[in-house]
Every structure is written in C-alpha cells, then in structure tokens.
Amino acid sequence: MGSPTQVIEQKNHQRQTVSFILLAVGLFVYLQVFIFPNIPRCASGDQAIYLLHATRMLQGDVIYRDFSHFTPPATELIYTVLFKVFGVRGWIPQAMLVAIGTLLAWLSIAISRKVMTGPAVYLPSLVFLVFPFSGFLDATHHWYSTLAVTAALAVLLEKRSAARLTWAGALCGLAASIAQTQALVAAGFGLFLIWEGHRNHEPWRLVFKKVGHLLSSFLAAILAFNAYFVWKVGLKQFFYYTVVFVAKYYPADRFNNWRAYLAYWPSAHGWANWPDLSAWFFIQALIPLVYVLFFVRYALRSRLQPQQPWARLMLVNVTGVFMFLGVAPSPSYIRIYCVSLPGLILLSWFLDSPLRAERILQRIVWAAVLVVGIGRPVIAQVRSRAFLEVPTGRTAFFEPALYEKCKWLSERTRPSEYFFGDTFLCFTLGLRNPARVPFVRPTDYTRPEEVDDVVRALEQRQVRFVNWYNGVDASGPSGDHLAPLRLCLATHYHLAKTFSNFDQVWERNRFADQTEPLAAAEHRR
After folding, report:
1. Which pLDDT tens digit goes with each residue over 350-368?
2. I need a surface site. Which of 144, 333, 360, 485 has the fewest CB within 10 A?
C-alpha cells in the first residue's frame, strides 16, 4: 500500500479512466442508434410493441383490460411516463438504449472491481457493449430487467447488510415487474445467502433474517408496480396473462420455446451484419458453459487459493445462472445476449491469469473489442439509409423494405386512423390499433377469442388498411385460429400492395376508389 498521496492519485486516476470509458461507451451506442447529429434509427423490433402499448396507456387504455400482453406492466409504465414528459417521439427508445448501455457499463466496472484488479476490470463492460448489447439494439423489456438485476448484484456484492438486502430485493422486484422470469434471481440470491451462511457458520436465525429482508422488499416492489393493474382488471385476468398464457400458449411459436437455441442467427446478408455473427458464435459458446466451469474451479481451487474473493465470485455466478434459467425455456440468441453480463465478468476473471494461454486469449479479446468497437459505429454512420418525416419525428431507415412500407402507408393515412397488424407502423405513424392484440400468429399464441376480437374491431371501426406480414401463413394448420380473419380479408378487403420483403397491405373495398395518396392530394390542393 502506498502513501496517502499515492492512494488519492490512484483513485483520481481510476475515476478519470472510468469517466473516459463511460463517455466513450455513450458515444459508441449513440453513433449506432442515431445518425449524426440527431436523427434516430427507426424503432423496429419488439420494442415497438411496448411503445405502442405505452401510447395506448397515455390515451387512457389499461393493459390487460383494453389490450392483451404477457409481461408485467413496468416497461409500458416507463415509456408512458417518458411520453407524458417529452411527447410521443421516436428518439426516446434510442436515447434509452444509450442510457441503458452506459449504466450497464458503469455497473459492470463497479462489480468487476470487487473481484479483479488492473485493466481486466474494464474488459467485461467493453466486451458486453461491443458484442451482445450492440447485437440487439432493441429497447425492449429484456434490457430493462437486465439493468435492474445487474444493479441488484452491484448493491449486494460487497456486503449483505440489511439495507443492501432491502435494496437488492426491491430491484429484483422491479426486474420481475418488467420480465416475470427474472423473479428467479431473487430465489438465486436467497440460495446464495443460505450457502454463505453455512460456509461462514452463521446462526440460522441470522441467515433467515437476511432472506426475510430480501424477500419482503422483493414482494413489496412487485406489489407497488402491479397492484394498480390488479385492481383495475382483477387478479384472475392479471394472472391469466402473466402466468397462464405464458405457460400454456407463449411457447406455441417455435422461437418461444427450447427449439430456439442455436436455431436462429443474425442475417449474414451485407457486410454491416458480420459483427453480429461473431457475437452470435462467441456468446452462445460462452453461456452457460462459463458458469459450469466456475463451479468446477471453485470445487478444485477454493481451498488452494483462499486469497480469491470466492463469495463475491459465487454471487456473480449464481446471478448469471438464475438469469440464464429465466430465459432457458426459450433460449434464443437475443435472450441469451441479455443475460450474458455475469458470464463475461467471470470470463474476464478466468483470463486475468499469469498463465501464457490465458494472457494470449485476453489479448485476442482486447483486439476484437478494439476492432469491432471502432467498426460498429463507423458502419452505422456510413451504411446506406433513407430518411422519412413521420409523426414521431424525422427517422432513419437501414432496411429498405421497412422504409418502403412506412413511406407507402404514410402517404395514405393520417395520425389517429385505425390500422392493424404492424406495431412499428402504428407507433411511428401515430396510428391506432383497433383490437386487443397488435398482431396475429398462425399458432396457439393467438387465441380464437382474440381473432374474433380482431374481426369485430375491423368491422366496427371500418379499418381501411391491414398488414399481413410475410410468414403469417407459414406455420401450417396446427393451432392456427386465423380462418375467420382470412375470411374477413377475402370478403371485405383487396390486396393493395406487396412489398419487397413479401409483406402485404390489404385495403378495405369501400376505399378502393380512393387510390390517390394523401400526400399527393394535399400537394394538389
């Protein structure tokens, strides 16, 4: 240990290093989700579901009562508050990705400092941001729950005081109110407390008192975030959507069950997607293998290397295991990305070794971070894109088919019109979804009563345009309840446009003679 002056200088140097890294991280994410200086990428993907739901809640609708969804309401609440403050703008989810990425990097460094020293402290956060996080830039519930769980781990890692246990439990409750499967992490924390109590020969009364602090705040947070909606829709309805539907019908789609593991990968078309392929191979090879390897190393070396912070490392490992168990029933690569941070911290700890092989691997990882970390934002800024003025603000499009659809529909609709079948178009163009569900699937994921509700809504509101996306007819007859909707389209609609990705928009027959786009009509007037 150096003199007090040296210690102060070292701490100042660490603060400066962390500040520089976090600034670089924020800029790194920003340049991927915004076209410089301030044009956001289009908010496509799963995030559009939550954005559309939040606009409905802003208009007075209540989740589970007026529209259906299978996750708890906290993600919609976040976006509803943001829309209330800033308006319904397309930059909001992209700005949240910048904030989430920066906060996760900061938490990763804080956690890594408790189990490692030197440059290895910064490696997990940079690998995480460059590979899995940038491979899934979708501001959906997965990232919000990951942020809450990681914050709980950071709070609990140094010591298990009553205050820290209370905060950790509350953060786990928040995570479970975003994605219910992350409630498993609270169970993992409880098991860790029992393991640690046994290891340290603590009285069982003290152990159960610690568990009590954790679980009581966990349940209190769940109650705080969900009680209003239970009161509004009833416990039975709330339980059906967040538990029964998830268990019985959510796995009906092949990408929502165990078959999703290694079954899908990022598109290999185009040079801009190659970093995503490297992330796909790297992360799925690592998770959950690294957790198994840690248990093996602990069993073999914990007594031989007592200087290692084994309790802290075990807590990181347990957190990673239970985060992975939360997505294991449907382990698609994007879900594994979202729970990979504890595994990356452990990987960096494995590589932080004087052995030659580990040093070589560590240098390879650093080199990959440097190359891909520079390449990703450059690719995002120079790749081909198109821009469109829409009700949510000027927006950049990287996918030609998405731009084509949005431009075509924007010329034929006005905000607040009803439109069904595409959450991104609804949100971006300020359109209203007439039905309980925002889209349909030809599986048991879409229930017969929901199909009937869509048909009824299309008729009652005389909805002009319906999106019929490529793949909606691909799953065959098993569990397919869409026959009434297909009949409705065949009877009352005609095919208005087929796009380059084979998505279709159907137009109601009574509008057939109104072929002139709104933009052209307004220009003529």
Report:
1. 998 888 888 899 999 999 9
2. 360
